[in-house]
Amino acid sequence: MADVLLSLTMPVDVSQHVEDLLLSRPDIVRGFTAAHVDGHGSVVRLVEAAELVRGHAPRIQIQTVGEEADMREALALIKGTLPQANVFYWLLPVIELGRL
Known about the structure:
It comes from Candidatus Proximibacter danicus. InterPro entries: DUF3240, N-reg_PII/ATP_PRibTrfase_C. This is DUF3240 family protein. Pfam families: DUF3240. By secondary structure, the protein is an alpha+beta fold. The protein has three helices and four strands. Helices cover 32% and strands 33% of the residues. It has a four-stranded antiparallel sheet with strand order 2-3-1-4. It is globular and about 45 Å long. 18% of the residues are buried. The model has no long low-confidence stretch (mean pLDDT 88).
C-alpha cells in the first residue's frame, strides 16, 4: 500500500493529547513532526483578545507519513478519543520519501 502524508492542525491546548495518542501507537505511527503555526481565515475561531487583535490563532501542526490504512486508523483513534478536539486534517499521496 502507498504512503500518505497526514497533516493535523489543532489548538495548542489539544496538541499534547494528540501527541500522547500518536506516541501510544508506534505500530501505526512511526514518528511525527510538530510545529507551531498560525491559523488564519473564517473557519478559525478567535477566542482570546490577543487573537482578535492579531487576526489569527496559535495552532500546532503535526505531520506524519505512513501507509494509508495506518493513517486512517490514527484519525479514527483521535476522533474516537477526542471527538470535540477541533482538529483539521488532510491526507496527501507521497511520491517519494527517504533519508539523506
